[in-house]
Amino acid sequence: MKIKMLAGKTIEINVDLVKERAKCNFNIREVTHILDGGEKNTIQRKKIEDISLNDGQSRDVIPEEYLSPKERYENAVKKSCIYARIIKTELMNMTGLETLGFNSPVFRRIADAYFKEVTPLLAHFGMFVPTIMGQCTPEQLAHWLPRALNFEIVGTYVQTELGHGTFIRGLETTATYDPQTEEFVLHSPTLSSYKWWAGGLGKTVNYCVVVAQLYTKGVCHGVHTFIVQIRDEETHMPLPGIRVGDIGPKMGYNTGDNGFLVFNHHRIPRENMMMKNAQVLKDGTYVKVARHEKLTYGTMVYVRVMLVNEMAFNLAKAVTIAVRYSAVRRQSQPKPNQPEPQVLDYLTQQHKLFICIATAHALQFTSDWLYKTFTSVLADIRDDKIDTLPELHALSSCLKAICTSDCAAFIEICRFACGGHGYMASSNLSMIYSYVSATRTYEGDYTVLLLQTARFLVKAWEQVEKRRPVTSTISYLSHAFDKLKKPWDGSNEGIIRAFQRVAAGKISACINCIRYHQKSGKDFEDAWQLTTIQLVAAAEAHCRAVIYDTYYNETIRLTASSSPNVKSVMEQLCTLYLLYWSLERTGDLLRFTSLSEKDIFDLQQRYEKMLAVIRPNAVGLVDAFDIRDEILNSTLGAYDGRVYERLMEEALKSPLNAEPVNSSFHKHLKPFMQGKL
Ligand SMILES: CC/C=C\C/C=C\C/C=C\C/C=C\C/C=C\C/C=C\CCCCC(=O)SCCNC(=O)CCNC(=O)[C@H](O)C(C)(C)COP(=O)(O)OP(=O)(O)OC[C@H]1O[C@@H](n2cnc3c(N)ncnc32)[C@H](O)[C@@H]1OP(=O)(O)O
Ligand SMILES: Cc1cc2nc3c(=O)[nH]c(=O)nc-3n(C[C@H](O)[C@H](O)[C@H](O)COP(=O)(O)OP(=O)(O)OC[C@H]3O[C@@H](n4cnc5c(N)ncnc54)[C@H](O)[C@@H]3O)c2cc1C
Prior knowledge:
Layout: E1 2-6, E2 9-13, H1 15-23, H2 28-36, H3 39-53, H4 69-93, H5 105-114, H6 122-135, H7 138-149, E3 155-158, E4 174-178, E5 183-187, E6 195-198, E7 207-216, E8 219-229, E9 242-246, E10 259-263, E11 266-269, E12 278-280, E13 286-288, H8 298-328, H9 347-382, H10 389-417, H11 429-439, H12 446-465, H13 492-519, H14 524-530, H15 532-558, H16 564-584, H17 586-592, H18 597-614, H19 618-623, H20 629-632, H21 643-651, H22 663-673
Parallel strand pairs: 3-7, 4-7
Antiparallel strand pairs: 1-2, 4-5, 5-11, 6-10, 7-8, 9-10, 12-13
Helix pairs in contact: 2-3, 3-5, 6-7, 6-8, 8-9, 8-10, 8-11, 9-10, 9-15, 9-16, 9-18, 10-11, 10-12, 10-15, 12-13, 12-15, 13-14, 13-15, 13-16, 13-17, 15-16, 16-18
This protein binds ligand LB6ISTLD and flavin-adenine dinucleotide (FAD).
């Protein structure tokens, strides 16, 4: 152990970690600034982290694993109020800082110091407020937004029902306009129409955005959004006509009180229909305002965009834990009479972990780029231009699907990399995994969203066939008709072009398959269904090509004025990422490019050399994510590497250790062992 001063405190640091940090050859702060989107953001983030975490209010006295479900929820509500107060105060102090807002990555990061699972207010921050911002008229906005931002009301987003989640047009809850009273009557006509899943609905919120089928003058106009009060603002009792409760234990999100909601002819004022995109006049006349009918789905697009950033952060946490632990952990004896090596020195361990570091960078840069695209499309929509929306929908759908899926898979690999101790709840890897695993399903299931992107790609292909211009992310399709396979080029640019060829080849194969089925007499819908396995694969290939291109270009752009070693290490990670996926997808490359067996051998050699090049900087790279111990919440991943001490300290907190003999011994085990039971 070595003693080190950190933030004014003297701490003991594991000697292996001290050596690792001494080996690091680049400026860690510089990389942190790049990942944060600039030094100004890092300074701001650290300031808010200090304000909100230094007083210890985020800490639990008893680890929440030992609390009952009810106590865990109550504890989460208590801490949510502290957390929300910090956001309110800091937001007021931060006016003018355009990069930080209500849902800023900074507030997101500190949330993890407060909640091992989630805050019951997550859907208030992530969905209720964004829906108010996106779906209200200016008058409605003036009424609802300040109340929601001040937490005078707390809300959630209630869309999914027992019977339907994916197929929104199939939702059954009705909102029928009554012109006599100028009210909507909300009703749940069947068991399958019961609302199910909304976060915070069970016990926490008093308002919600409800998605329901709008009926007026006897005509159904499809799903629309309504602001519905469900609990009394004083007593918090459910209002008449409302049945609401918690849906019970889940694989994760257990402090999130996901709920059910049943309407029995519940009335709300006409003004509570969110009327930015469509209106119902007092006499019941339906007026469509928006030019694109899917603008009602805007909150989902927003959350899908946010989730990409969410994935980058969660993977950064998991790999920080796994790399630090792998530097501390020593195991086996590959050579006789030699000390046990750090497990990080095993090539196979580097193969598990360095791709996770690279992926966290790739997702961070892709997420920043996607967010910019999102804000630019929002600006277009404000100017009544809706032609950029389909591309945003296609991009956010596939990126949400692939990033959540990759991130869950890589977090599980981080757990494997930590052996048995990775399975301890105190490693925090199981919590991170159960949190991330749900993201592949919610906000649009993986397969469903990739099929949305595939629709866009098939249409784009038809445009390219007609030699019509297409948007930037699919411009590579224009080269799909070049007949000759180009010689394999293993440079970064060459690999990206090769994967664009793979994507184009897969889309082309889907088109051929759909047309083949149509020629055999199938209608388009059936031909589409028969092609869906390939369509999902084509959308995945397209998405990966977008990520490779974005990661590569953003790395060059963001390190243009960096110090040489920072530039090198960031480029090495990007190259590692491209090599890793080339080796993972050799089948695709063999099918659609001129890659040979010899090229695969070369790729493998280059990949393994790159692992060795990155090895000395591995701990420095995860330190650069700059995730405070309070946020990591891990016995294995703390900055000081006191792994075994922390494991023991945590074990001693188990209530089972409070007494030398548990009463069940005398009550059950002893009589059983003595043959008396
Ligand atoms: C611990 C943290 C603590 C504190 C937090 C602090 C701060 C917060 C920070 C960040 C928060 C932000 C986010 C991160 C984290 C979490 C978020 C919080 C909670 C999330 C919990 C989960 C919430 C939910 O799951 S809500 C429910 C979501 N449900 C879905 O996604 C359903 C999926 N289904 C669909 O989207 C659609 O039904 C469908 C797309 C599959 C089909 O729709 P539909 O049948 O109507 O359309 P089609 O006929 O198929 O298509 C017609 C054409 O329309 C096009 N289309 C479809 N959708 C869209 C769209 N959205 N936009 C544009 N165009 C669209 C479609 O492509 C067709 O086009 P074509 O040209 O005709 O082909
Ligand atoms: C933790 C968590 C939190 C949630 N929070 C909220 C919330 O706050 N508010 C809210 O409204 N909802 C919420 N949800 C619900 C969530 O949005 C839905 O569960 C999700 O959209 C998936 O829909 P589903 O459950 O209907 O799945 P289904 O559509 O029933 O999916 C089942 C299977 O069928 C497949 N499938 C479905 N349709 C097709 C198709 N067309 N083609 C091919 N395959 C298909 C899917 O790929 C999947 O494998 C939450 C869910 C979870 C797990």
